[in-house]
Amino acid sequence: MTNNQSLSGIDIAHNSAQLRATAECLLDYLKVHGKSGRAFEILQFLASGTLQCLAEGREPRFNNYAIRSAVTGEVEGDASAWLSPIWKRITTDLRQQREEGLQEFAAERGLNCYPWVGKLESSGGGGNQALFFLVALPLPETGKQSPTTIDLAPPDIAYIAAENLQPSWWARWLFDQHHVASGWRKWLLVWPNLIWFAVIGLLGILLFVILGQSTAPLSSRDLMLTIFLALIAWYAARVVKRFERLVDDRLIMASDSMVGFREFGVCLELFKTDGTSSGSGKRLRMVKYAAQCPVCAAQVLLDPGEPDFPRRIVGRCQESPREHVFSFDRATRTGCKLP
Predict the structure, then answer these.
(1) Neighbours of 219 (CB within 10 A)
(2) What's the CA gap between 100 and 94, in Å, rounded?
(3) What is the C-alpha to C-alpha distance for residues 50 and 27, in angstroms, rounded to an integer?
(4) Whole-model pTM?
């Protein structure tokens, strides 16, 4: 065997190991950050199919019919017409939304590349079909180095912003497609609550002045009105307290009315735009940070830390929410296991 043949064998083995690592990375990413839909089903098939082909010593490339059959179970009809619009969405919108998160997820696993998909067009002629496959793309150079974290212990968990976020109907009107509220839309979330609180306070003062000047005995109607007004004032104060905490902590859990019925772990974050140091550059966004539990590989979502960790937002494993609990640092998007 010549030296060139030996090197070729080493390169093939290296490429196979790299492709296997990226396929496993994509599967783990989809477990935590995936959602329903044909696009995600195709990505999952390409990842699992690649691992199976590598294990059997076959080339991990798939045509239209193999992909459609694996995803839908159908074997008849034009598979190319079925796959074409989905593939276009994967390589345009989905890539724009997910590529950065995939890069962060792969980097946290210690990889120097991240998974994506590729397509080899057919050469034409009868029986020739385009082939689809998984590729390992090199991670971009960040050029960043943080001297303050060099000597720190490595984090136990790393969070990335998940894309599978479903706001409520009225929140979709206030937040844009990136779940960010700026300008007058941001103030619509703040000022109505403050005005409501002020009006309730004035009504309460007016009620007590009227009752104090009245010489008639306190009726049951007066008592019920006082209790009702007190409850409204308590709720208004609670809402204002939430926004006060948002200003202080920069991150709070989003209220149930802001998210879909089956949505969990969504936060409301106050952040500054890049290159802006003044308060006018602050915006609000709804964000859902998620990670993979290093203990049981389940999904970790953010949750209030009470009662064990008051006024903290922590990451709780969805399988062991009381035992697998992690801190959350919004600046580094990392955390360590909490006792």
Answers:
(1) 10
(2) 11
(3) 11
(4) 0.60
